[in-house]
Amino acid sequence: MDAYRDQYAQLFGGGKDATLLAISTDTDTVLASWARDRKYPFAFVSDRDGAIGKQYGVYANGMDNRTLYVIGPDGKISYRAAPFREVDPTAYEALGQAVKQAGRTAK
Fold first, then answer.
1. CA distance 92 to 11
2. What is the domain extent for residue 93?
3. How far apart, in whole angstroms, are the C-alpha atoms of residue 2 and residue 9?
């Protein structure tokens, strides 16, 4: 998550180009504390029962798998990385391109 934080302005236009939601099965209080302590500039969503993960087919063994989606302005998934390789710099290049492409389709 630190890589998202560190590249947030560039990848997501500081929040004006895209909305980033980090979804986890952790409790809302744990996520809020973690986000505050690590100074994450984006929102976290608690998916305690896996309802969101189940809808996207990424919930297994009591947790949501590391899957990243870019959802276009039309509400459709325009990019999927499963799993998202957060330690691979090229993963962020592909993500940046996907966010830009989704933004272009909005105009």
1. 8
2. 2-106
3. 13
Q: What is the DSSP string of 5-22?
A: HHHHHHHHGGGTS---EE
pTM of the model: 0.75
Per residue in 42-72, pLDDT (tens digit) is: 888 999 999 999 998 888 888 888 888 888 8
Higher local confidence (pLDDT), 32 or 72: 32
| Residues 6+ away with beta carbon under 8 Å from 104 | none
Alpha-carbon distance 84 to 33, whole Å?
Answer: 24
How many domains does the chain contain in total?
1
Indicate which CATH number applies to the domain containing 29.
3.40.30.10
CA distance 35 to 103: 26
Alpha-carbon distance of 97 to 53, in angstroms, equals: 25
The reported pLDDT for the residue numbered 29 is 96
pLDDT given at position 38: 92
